Amino acid sequence: QMATVVIAGRPNVGKSTIFNRLVGRRQALVADQPGVTRDRKEGEATLRGRTVRLIDTAGLEESGPDTLFGRMRASSEQAVQTADLVLFCIDARAGITPADEHFATWLRRQNRPILLVANKAEGKAGAAAAMEAFSLGLGTPIGISAEHGDGIADLMTMIVDAL
Ligand code: GDP
Ligand code: MG
């Protein structure tokens, strides 16, 4: 049985960029072909020789409950319930927002293993900003830059170790 890893967090923190990084170039390119939805929601990623099912909880911008937290929760609830591991992603540059805090509180109650991923943490300032996410009470933030590729290899190792 393949493990399921769910990428969650508010819009624009970089979930889809992380998804593409983990799934890899080949599948990401396929997704860019005309007629194929650009925002892939599911894929397989081979991390340190272990293949996992990866789910990107996209679609938060679509209509639904009218608060940001409501939409985050609605779009993630089903996926989180099937998750062997949740990557809760925040934007280290933007800092922790009320929606992040709300979502963290809800996520903790779901009793699923969580890795806290602080994305957009490129550069020295980024590493310091990532540490602000300690305040969420979800353990040590893993600072990465999905766009630049920083910290991705370490993240892959931490995902496999957490499964
Ligand atoms: P999503 O809405 O959570 O899926 O976020 P996206 O993956 O669509 O990314 C939102 C924006 O953040 C895009 O403009 C990305 O290029 C940008 N982004 C993603 N990762 C990084 C990163 O590591 N550093 C910076 N500076 N920007 C990033
Ligand atoms: Mg997305």
UniProtKB/TrEMBL annotation:
Residues in EngA-type G domain copies: 3-163
Gene Ontology MF terms: GTP binding
Keyword Membrane in annotation: no
Keywords per UniProt: GTP-binding, Nucleotide-binding, Repeat, Ribosome biogenesis
Origin: domain of life: Bacteria
Binding partners and assembly: Associates with the 50S ribosomal subunit.
Annotated function: GTPase that plays an essential role in the late steps of ribosome biogenesis.
Protein's UniProt name: GTPase Der
Source organism (scientific name): Acetobacter estunensis
Taxonomic classification: Bacteria, Pseudomonadati, Pseudomonadota, Alphaproteobacteria, Acetobacterales
Residues shown, of full length: 29 to 191 of 516
